[in-house]
Amino acid sequence: MKLNTAFIISFLFFIFSCKEKAEHEENFVIYQVNPQKQNIQLYWKNHQNEILKSIRNLEKYTASQNEKLVFAMNGGMFEPDYSPKGLYIENNVVIHPADTSKGNGNFYLPPNGIFYITRNHLAEIIETQKFRITPDIKYATQSGPMLVIENKINTAFQSSSKNLNIRNGVGILDNGEIIFAMSKKKVNFYDFASLFKEMGCRNALYLDGFVSRTYLPEKKWIQKDGDLGVMIGVTEPLP
Length: 239
Prior knowledge:
Blueprint: H1 5-27, E1 28-33, E2 39-43, H2 55-64, E3 67-74, E4 88-90, E5 93-96, E6 113-118, E7 123-127, E8 137-143, E9 146-149, E10 152-153, E11 168-173, E12 178-183, H3 189-198, E13 201-208, E14 214-216, E15 221-222, E16 231-237
Antiparallel strand pairs: 1-12, 2-16, 3-14, 3-16, 4-5, 4-8, 6-7, 6-8, 9-10, 9-13, 11-12, 11-13, 14-15
């Protein structure tokens, strides 16, 4: 039987994709979210105005709201008092203004960026300098640097870099779905950005480093400890 060339190419691409996905899952905790169908929010304080600080406390808080926490991750850098570093918007209220100053550290490595979600459940990542606050934005968190910018890896990164650390970040696919990822072992910025690019994210943003924590029971990855600032959570109604 003579095999169709197109079939062979498709089959080989399928095999390569499966191998690539397996390698990604081996090295990273990855969670894909459809903001149109899943409930995703940003959290910082509870109703008593107390900073949540940990995923353990976030889980208890969401349970008190009759919601089950199915995924959580730290959502950006923070000050020594756990307040957001840079822009933070929660439920359409600007809790902390954007930081457009220059400085040292990853947060200020250009370009800095903002991850936000609108009232209509659309998620976007944009460079901080291009961001404009509108009444349509329900949640937003600022961090840096941008990992992927319009399908291209940030040119500030070098593949040979020895700057290794645990890292977590967020990316947006062309279909509007969100990719959250955290490395299971130390990686440099270039390799971390490559993950998001290979998965098809047109834009991606670094969230934080060694303090990174992820809660994803469906993949048996449960980290509830740590002292965190803003957190990102996906919930579903309790039965």
